[in-house]
């Protein structure tokens, strides 16, 4: 069963769950979707996606490698 964003209730993707852990708390079980994370940190959503790709490229284990 997919986790849901605690702010808006929509299902979060693995990447969004990973971002919540990375940005808020590694041990959290309360996840935010990208839109709500952006609101929470008051940054454009695009910045979060840029960060996500940075983390992924750095080999962060929270994010699955891009499949070709
Ligand atoms: Zn949300």
Please outline the helices and strands.
Elements: H1 14-23, H2 34-41, H3 45-57
Bound molecules: zinc ion.
Verbal overview:
- It is a single chain.
- With 68 residues, the chain is an all-alpha fold.
- The protein has one domain.
- It contains 3 helices and no strands.
- The chain is globular, with a radius of gyration of 11 Å.
- It starts with 13 loop residues before the first helix and ends in an 11-residue tail after the last helix.
- The mean pLDDT is 93.
- Residues 5, 7-8, 10, 32-33, 35-36 line the site of zinc ion.
Ligands in the model, by name, code or SMILES, are:
zinc ion
User: If helices are DSSP runs of H or I spanning 4 or more residues, what is the number of helices?
Assistant: 3
Number of strands: 0
Main beta-sheet annotation: none
